[in-house]
Amino acid sequence: MDTINISIYGRGGQGAKTCAQIIAEAGVKAGKNVQAFPEYGPERRGAPVRSYVRLSNKPIRTHEPILNPDVVIVIDGNLANVLKEIKEYSSPLIINGNAEIKGFKSKEIFIVDGTKISLEEIKINNPNIVLIGSLLKILEDKKINFIKYKDVEKVIKETFTKKRKEHFIMPNLNCLKRGYNFKK
Amino acid sequence: MKTKKTALNGGEAISYAIKQVDVDVFAMYPITPQTPIIESYANHHNNGEVTTELILVESEHSALSTVIGSAASGARSVTATASQGLMYMYEVLSVASGLRLPIVMPVANRAISAPINIHCDHSDAMACLDQGWMMAFCESAQEAYDMTIFAFKLAEKVSLPIMVCIDGFYTSHNLENLETYEDKVVKKFVGDYKGPYNLLDTKKPISIGALSLPNTFFEIKVELFKAFDDVEKDFLEVSKDFEKTFGKKINFFEEYKVKDAEVVIVVMSSTAQSTKNVIDKLRKERKKVGLLRPILFRPFVYSKYLNTLKKAKEIIVLDRAEGPGSSSPLYKEIKLSVCDNDKKINVTSYVFGLGGRDLFEKDIEELLNGFIKGKPNKEKYLGLKK
Fold first, then answer.
1. ipTM rounded to 2 decimals
2. Domain covering A3-180 in this structure, CATH number
């Protein structure tokens, strides 16, 4: 496997773009070629949005949207039931929340309550880091080594230091850990 | 030379280059359609990483007017824009070039209204072709970063303004790997800027932008036109310097497997990157295809193109802008490049991706295969809904 394609679904304002960016930046730290881009439309809060990440051992030259993702992250669990394309993916799905899931083609559906965890840890509903933790675990179980846990930790530290919001570092590291241990 | 590996989007990459140059003046108008360029530069400024005078203005017309003023006073000056913003600047574009001011202006190419859209295409830049600005089109964040550094040196050497163009969204908002150079190496490469004249020098008072009636106007304009003829030589010199400093070559255009190609596709900016994937695929099937990607679009160095293209049988030109009632802009230049050749070379024009419509690699492959089989696609507009 030379390249891994990840699609992220969320609603405007939920941070699908940031989520893609964190994964890509961790990829850079692991020496990978990366690409991360959101699908831009009218930027309305609450409207469904897609973001894409490619991580590769080769230079990435394509500029196509990802139509056949290897992994899908759904930040707003309800979207999984609303958007037909998510139901039709046969790739692993990481879905946030505790929504009831049925009628999906995918045989690997991972439900992670990132909302609950993030509310407990950061005190805001921002499940992205939890879901990235789960993504790390799922990729690790499949022996796909494009991003490393410790690199995501570094990116989290750097991101919040740059934003001068250092007090968010620890709670987010906890989110990452709990997301990683979602099966336990 | 030490480099740092990082990832930035195209807009941030350009902004990072400008930060390293640490320009004197950056005028900005923060409104849609803007790009991450000014947003991230404002951050650099806020973090105390630059000594630049940031001037927030009330429109794009004012943004360019402001840097025309600062550049005329001898300050290294920058502004950035896109789409409608560039349209609003149009009136003063020729003032910047007419006064021979080496302003560097990154442009994230986006559609122009109506209908309102602001997604990627080249209509904005192509509407400004002959206003006396040099123009370079970059395929990636890395090339945009390199070209921005290069642009300062070139513009100041030839006393002409330059637009550094990237694809809106596809490059401007796309996070990509980027290798950056050390600040001091970048600074040394561009050197200190000393303008040809200084508005504030009271010992040598001058008048800038004065009235020029029919007895002088023509000569002054012809000087500007002739300055474009000299760019080729200076470009090569700066390119040599750039290679010596950073170990990379910047050319008028990129040739990708063109040497023995019978079918050559010509396309600019990020789409050329995707096209390379298609060329590799078809080459594996032993099909003789190649890509030519123009980088410097103004001036357009015709003689060099003829030399590269004269062996081709079919040339396919993909434009991301149209010339209604005429022909699309890149097509015209390529057609003009090969028209002095004795051999008949077919040049076919296609237009794609207006308003951000995706062009998929399978579409490019199908297009090329059509020419290989002698059955070219008859629809000029690629990717239209049926």
1. 0.91
2. 3.40.920.10
